[in-house]
Structure formats: C-alpha cells, structure tokens
Amino acid sequence: MSAVNFPQFMYESILKTATEDPEFEFKTRLTAYPPTYELKRRQKTGDASSVIFFTAIAYSIFITITTSYLVLERTSQLKHVQVITGMRLSAYWIANFIFDALKLYVTIAVTIVMFESFDATYDSARWVFIGFPFAILPFTYVLSFFFSTDSTAQTFTMFFHLSVIMIVSTFIFVLRLIPGVEVLGDHLHYGFKLIPSYSLASALYTDASIRFVS
Hints:
By secondary structure, this protein is mostly helical. The protein has two domains: 1-31, no CATH class; 40-213, no CATH class. The chain has nine helices and no strands. The radius of gyration is 28 Å and the shape is elongated.
C-alpha cells in the first residue's frame, strides 16, 4: 500500500465500521485550482519582459552602430570632403536614411517572424516595429551632433537605449498598475514617448495586457 493511498484506506475502514457495511468504499480525485487572475497577468507580463530584453539588445546595438558611423564621418571630415566635392547635404541624409532603414527592416522582419514562430502575436506592437525606422533614424541623426568622438557616442547610445527599453519602460508599466501613482505613470508614459525606443517596449507591454484582458 502506497503512502498516497493510506489516508483513503484509513477513512474507508472508519466508514465501514460506522456504517456496518464491509463493502463500503469511495474514490477520491485531486483537481488543481485554476490559475488565478494575478498568476495569468504575471505570466503574460513575464513573456513581454523576455521579448523586451532581446529587443533591447538587438535594437540598441543597431542604433549604436548608426550613431557611431555618423559621428566618425563628421569628426574625421569625411562628410565635409563629400560636401566640398559637390554632394548635397539633402542627398547625404536621404541616402543614409534609405540604407539605414533597409538594414533596420531586416532586423524588424526577423523580429516579426519570431513573433509568429513562437505564437507571440503582438498585433499592435507589430505596427510600431514597422514604423520604428521613421522615428528612430531622425532621432539618431539629430542626437549624433551632440558627440565629439565616436567612442563616447557608442557608450552613451548603447546604455541610453538599453536603459530606456528595459528599465524605464518596466518602471513606468509598473507605476501605471499601482493605485495612487497611476496618474504619475501615465504622465511619464506620454512624456517618454518622445523617445522612439521607449515606444517599442511600451507597445509590447500594452499588447500583452490587451491579449490578457481579451
């Protein structure tokens, strides 16, 4: 007799004596409680957090490389040489944008394919990713003028976007869930939307919440 069946055997013996029925027996069944609302919410949020972690690494590296070569071309006078030989600045920025956007769309395409492969259907976030180059590239081009060396640009850009995507987005998401400070979280949420990389993480968290509620 196993240890698991011993309580049932004991209770059966007691009931057989109480009912004076030597054939008396009963069966037990164990049914786990269904997952609670909080458990489901944490699971969905945890899934989004994992996606955000890998998104932060992949996209921060791309943005860092883009900022680095822009600063290097400016500080080494490569862009100046092109300008004095007849190149228009408008052509320079348009060509950079097209080339950088094509490179970024390769990463975005892989991201969306991974979503579909793992059944992580972030429907709204997908459109944010598709429109991401039109926000992050102009933002990166303007930010590149604040650096005088490419090494400084790389260090700042990498840690800045990693922090915004992973830490700031999570902090604001949690604030918006806590009664009493959700208004502050909303204000920070709309303020940080001026940073395109924040919108990536925010869209993933929002999509995860919508999928959970629905």
